[in-house]
Amino acid sequence: MAARGVGVDVVDVARFALALERHPRIVERLFTEGERRDGRGRTERLAARFAAKEAVMKSLGVGLGSVPWRSIEVVKERSGQPRIVLHAAAAELAARRGVAEVLISLTHSDLSAIAVALAEPGA
Fold first, then answer.
1. How far, in Å, CA of 34 to CA of 45, rounded?
2. Residues 6+ apart with CB under 8 A from 31
């Protein structure tokens, strides 16, 4: 079966760091406890997770604000591979769109964080 959608996003790490500095509590609004722990204060890691959330929304065919940020979670497998877990509103949206899984690829440097998401249909 063909993919249901694809999304890509890029985040400027310096701009993201500035936003976090100006609004420190935004981290709690955007990221789950596990994501904050995995980010361990490294801005480029949090920027990549933010890019992932935007890419996932795009892959589901919606824009920013369509689901709560924390309803899309980036978890890290033992291998280090990132995986998307959808909760509550994001999981409901995916089900309505016929999406069983969202695959994710992340990369970052000191300058940019990039995510690509692929919404896969159910079997």
1. 12
2. 39, 46, 49, 69, 70
Q: Where are the domains of the chain?
A: 5-121
What's the DSSP call for residue 38? H
Closest CA to 55 of 121, 10, 110, 108: 10
Q: Are 6 and 117 in contact (CB under 8 A)?
A: yes
Residues with Cβ < 8 Å from 89, sequence gap 6 or more?
67, 68, 71
The pTM of this model reads 0.94
Each of the 123 residues of the chain gets a pLDDT tens digit; together they read: 688 899 999 999 999 999 999 998 999 999 999 999 988 879 999 999 999 999 999 999 998 889 999 999 999 999 999 999 999 999 999 999 999 999 999 999 999 999 999 999 976
| CATH fit for domain 5-121, picks 3.50.50.60, 3.90.470.20, 1.20.140.10, 3.30.70.100 | 3.90.470.20
